[in-house]
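It is worth pausing here to work through a concrete case rather than discussing structure prediction in the abstract. The textbook approach is simple: state the sequence, then state the predicted structure, then interpret. We follow exactly that order.
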Amino acid sequence: MTNNRILFLYFPYVHGASLYSQFVWKDLLKCDFGTPLTKDNSQLLNYTNKNRQAYFEEHPTYLSSNVLTKDLSCPDLEFSDKVSLFSIDNPENQLEIKSIHDYDTIIIASFWAFYTYIHFVIDNFPKKKVFLIQDDSLQYIEMAHTELEWHICEAIRKADGYISYTQQMKNWVTLFQANVIHINHPVPKGMERIKQFKNTNNKICLGVGTWNYDLFHMMSSYQIFKKFADNKEYTSEILGVHGFKEEEYSLYKKNDNRVNIVSWAKGDDFYKRIGEYYCILNLNERAVAGRICLEAAIMGIPVIGYKTIDMQEHCWPKLCVEPYDTVKAISILEQLFNDKLYYKKVVDFAFERYSLLNASTNKIANKISEFIS
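Step two, the predicted structure:
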């Protein structure tokens, strides 16, 4: 469809931590990139950020002791047809205000905090094609309050289709939405520049947070390090800890001076930190926690992670472990440190897998173009 005017609605709350993000679609689909505005011309993101930050500060371990509620998706806001286009380099910089009426197809990043708005678009613009693209993990949805879960399922059901980055999410969505496609997240241009930041030492990363650590098995990660590093001169680091989690995670540092806690890092600072690690433990149940697997594949830093993460299995199949298989994780750590040839083999294989994915970027874009038309 040559005249298909596409609007991609995104919420740039994670901008800065990782280059590997939804922004890649702007060039691939030749679409406008925007974020929703309320009736008073405020970004919807301002309200959801305020709600979420207050909630997280009150409930810093909310997924272990609380649940996400529908209130976090701003059900009382008055939405509008207006959207603010923004620059990928500077998402805070408003380029132009446009209307949903200006477009034929709307693609919306389906983060749990924005489902009230998603319902608004589907219900109020019935002549527009509305597709949702995964921006959340199934684990978050399943741990939400039932009211919010229902809200999410209904929006996915009413949409014209759903684009999934994980096989796990695709399988789940097909229970109530027949038009589902599964793709690998395409690789943005220029990603290979992060190789320059590799400066490896014997430091082991116990976790990389690009948003939060809610579904991370941090105690398992730490205990694996502790057992492996017994009587050895190794250090470890937990990267990307938000302020509302710092007090909780400081217990690791208080009890073991070989553990360093690093707060939120973004842009080149993020990759410089990654570049210092000998290897990374990514013991995270979130199926969308695969960004670091690909970034580390580019940089040549092994990632040990759960096989439930699609990109972990794609780039690092020999370093996959089942959840809680700490024995195998320690065995892999020992092999990585003691067998340099093995280290090089898994690193070289991961880069080959990244290269294959990078080469298929245009094919993925064409697949999505056909899907939404």
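Step three, interpretation. The chain has 15 helices and 14 strands. The first helix runs from residue 25 to 28.
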